[in-house]
Amino acid sequence: MLNTTLKQLNKLKKKFYNKKIAIIGDMMLDCYYWGEVSRISPEAPVPIVAVDNEFSRFGGAMNVAHNILKLGGIPLPIGVIGNDHNGKNLLDLMSQAKINNRFIIIDKTRPTTTKTRVIANNQHIVRIDKEDTTPINSRIENKIIEILKKNIKQIDAIILEDYNKGVLTARLIEQIISIANESKKIITVDPKFNNFFSYKNVTVFKPNRKETEDVLGIKIKTPEDVTKAGNILMEKLKAKYVLLTLGEEGVALFENGQIERKIPTKARKVADVSGAGDTVISTLTIALAAGAKIYDAAYLANFAGGLVCEEVGIVPISIDKLFNEVIEEINNGKN
C-alpha cells in the first residue's frame, strides 16, 4: 500500500505540474487504417479492406512525451525524425498537443519510424513498419549531447526510451548518463535488447519480464526467478533501483540493502496492454521528480499502468484520473 496520507498525496499531485521531463529516444508515429472486409482480392488470396477511417497517433518515445503532458508535466522530447510526410505528420501532432518540437532533429538520410496498422472487422489484419534501425551518426549524437548540456539546468528528470531504432547508441547512452549524474538529475530507463547493459549507474532501470529473460538467457516463472533476475540486474548495472515489470503479476522493486518489494497489478479487467510500459515509465519519473519516495512512485506507476490496460488502444492516463482512482482505492480500503 502507499506510504503516504491523502493530504500528502494531494500535495504530491500539485508538484507534478510543470515538471520538465526530457525524453530521449526513438520518436515514432503510429498510423491506423480502420475498415471492413467483405471480399477477397482477385489478384491474390488476401482480404480487401474498405477503409472508412484513418488517423495517426504518437508512438514510441513520443507516446511517453504525451503521457508526461497528460500527467501535468512539460515534456521535452529529444530525438530524430525523417524529412518526409510521416515526419511532418508527427510535427503537426506535436503542434496540436502543444508539445515543444525544438529538440527534434530532422535527418534527411533516414525515414521517420512509422508503424501502420490495418484493422478490419475489429481484427488486426497487418502491420507495416517503415524504419531504419542503423545507429545515428556521430554528428547527430553530438547534436543531442549539445542540446542536453545546454538545457540540463532546466530539466527535472530524463527518460531514456529505447526501442532499438538507432537513436540510443552506446556512446550516447554513456554520455547522457554522465551528464545526468554530474548534474544530479533523475534518470530513468526503459530498455530494449541492444545496449541493455550500457545503462549503468542510472536512477531507475525498468525492464519487462521478456527483455530480462532474453538478455539473461533465463526463464522468469517463479518468485525465486524474479528475485534472482532482479539481483543480477542490480549487480551488473549498479542502478540505484531496478523496477522489473511482470505484466499481470505487477512489479518487483529492487534497491541495494533493502528487501525486494512486490506491488500487485491494479488492472481490474485487461482490455489492451498496448502503451502500458510507456505509462509506467512516465508516471514513475514524474513522481520521482515531484519528490515521491521510490516505493510510492513505483506504486503510482504500477497503478497507472493498470488503468491503461483497461482501455482499448494507446490512451494516456490524465493526472486527475490517476489520482482520483488512487484516492478512491484508499477511501474504499483497498490500497
How would you summarize the topology of this molecule?
Blueprint lengths: L5 H11 L3 E6 L1 E14 L6 E14 H10 L3 E9 L2 H13 L6 E4 L5 E8 L2 E8 L7 H14 L5 E5 L8 H13 L3 E5 L13 E2 L3 H8 L6 H15 L3 E5 L5 E5 L5 E3 L12 H14 L4 H16 L9 H13 L4
Parallel strand pairs: 1-4, 1-8, 2-6, 4-5, 8-9, 9-10, 10-11
Antiparallel strand pairs: 2-3, 6-7, 11-12, 12-13
Structural overview:
With 335 residues, this protein is an alpha/beta fold. The chain has a single domain (6-27, 60-92, 133-331), classed as UDP-N-acetylmuramoyl-L-alanine:D-glutamate ligase (3-Layer(aba) Sandwich), CATH 3.40.1190. It contains 10 helices and 13 strands. The strands form 2 sheets. The protein has a 9-stranded mixed sheet with strand order 5-4-1-8-9-10-11-12-13, sandwiched between helices. Helix 2 packs across helix 8 (276-289), helix 4 (138-151) packs parallel to helix 5 and helix 8 (276-289) packs antiparallel against helix 9. It is globular. 43% of the residues are buried. The mean pLDDT is 91.
**How many structural domains does the protein architecture include?**
1
Percent of residues in helices: 25-40%
Low-confidence sequence ranges: none
N-end to C-end Cα span: 5 Å
Number of E-type strands: 13
Enumerate how many helices there are, as a single number: 10
- Strands of the largest sheet, in order across it? 5-4-1-8-9-10-11-12-13
- Largest sheet entry: 9 strands, mixed
Mean pLDDT: 91
Secondary-structure-based class equals alpha/beta
According to CATH, the homologous superfamily is Ribokinase
Order of helices and strands: HEEEHEHEEEHEHEEHHEEEHHH
Q: Mind telling me the C-alpha Rg?
A: 20 Å
